[in-house]
Amino acid sequence: MDLHIVIDPAQPRGEQLLRQLRGLIRSGRLATGAQLPPTRLLAEQLGLARQTVAEAYERLTLEQLIEARRGRGSFVRALPAAEPETPPVAPPRFASAARIAAFEQLPVPLLRFVDNPLARFDFVGGSPDPALFPHEDWRRHLHAAQRQLGQGSAHASPGGLPALREAIAEHVAYARGVRCSPADVIVTQGAQQAFDLLVRVLVGPGEVAAVESPGYPPVQALLQAQGARIAPVPVDDEGLVTDALPAGARLVYTTPAHQFPLGVAMSAARRRALLAWASREGTVIIEDDYDSEFRFEGQPRDSLQGLDGEGRVAFVGSFSKTLAPSLRLGYVIAPPALREALLNARHLTDVHGPLLLQSALARFMQEGAYRRHLRRCMAEYARRRERLMAGFAGPLAPWLRLLPAEAGFHQAALFKPGLAMDAPQLAALARRVDVGLYPLQVFAPEHNGLLMGFGRVTPEGIDAAIARMADLLS
Fold this sequence. Notes:
Elements: H1 13-26, H2 39-46, H3 50-62, E1 66-69, E2 73-76, H4 97-104, H5 111-114, E3 121-122, H6 135-148, H7 162-176, E4 185-188, H8 190-202, E5 208-213, H9 217-226, E6 229-236, E7 239-240, E8 251-254, H10 268-281, E9 284-288, H11 304-307, E10 313-318, E11 330-333, H12 339-350, H13 355-366, H14 369-393, E12 400-402, E13 410-415, H15 423-432, E14 435-436, E15 449-453, H16 459-473
Parallel strand pairs: 3-14, 5-6, 5-8, 8-9, 9-10
Antiparallel strand pairs: 1-2, 4-11, 6-7, 10-11, 12-13, 13-15
Helix pairs in contact: 1-3, 2-3, 6-13, 7-13, 8-9, 8-12, 14-16
């Protein structure tokens, strides 16, 4: 039997074969009882490995689309009869229907990326390379923490294990110039829980919260869920435009070290202006310092918290970018005046975080393994950044320019003026050649470009991906 199957060498071959055979069966073009070619013969005809064909047949067997008959071969099975449609059941009526609908309609663009499989060369933003995770060191400290589990009390402070709070306070003082004591540290389940606690404590329905525009969507969604009035504040080459801050704002959310998504750093003048404005308005500043441990240019810039002399800045950090997002470990350095309120809010949320992971991380940091890991990652990400910049200065130069970024492992790229280019279309085409691209419009509708995260792509992979992008653009 001759099957009309076309294999594109640039795409995963096994997936192509499986998809096309499945389509032929479900469309009826391969009728019930039809015999499929032997795996060896089909492999020769398509130029595939026999194992690739055998795996596709095995998958179709599991899906009950074909059956293997001993000594005879593989045959198409009868498709199951469609189940009769059941009449739709009306959803129950809730008095809180409007509130439920508001949460259903929250803008959560990052959630769309979670279920999408990564491409071979994927420039997803904010994602570290799993291959760089220090498995041996972490396993050793995790086992030690597990042996001690149960020797202490059944519960811990909502702020986290004392050993970890002490290690975090020491690290942020050394690496970011943050002024705090261990008592100011509240360990959270990722930075997102820190933002949630701060928003719930600081902002009520109808109150004003200022956010960078463009900015980080999950924080905006939290504020929207709280019923706050969101005031977008523009960003330029010096960061947040402080002259555009609204009067009466309860909080300001900003990413001064590495603005998300554009990547610019807030200038010293803007930092001073922001602190002065917050002092006049009585406003709390949330400083999201999500990936500034990785600095590639210039001298380290002082954190806003380190410059703050009045206790107005809540400094939020995360281990998702430096270790792994799956650990769900972050922290907030709470201003003294907010500490008790945030601890109470944390207690009501989940009492405290996972003590086993907190204990392992404390040991990991106290031994110096965390700093060694950061140095290794820094050297590797610097190589990847150099390859990315070389690609945009070379093959991609006719179409795109990278915005400058001193820190972090993503950069924004904008299409050059006058070009009729469409970032979503380019991203869709790039998927066909196994390159994952992310349109900047998801975060910044007014910017036509790409968010280029280089955490998960090797230097050699960056070269290969840029060559494929250049082919598509040309």
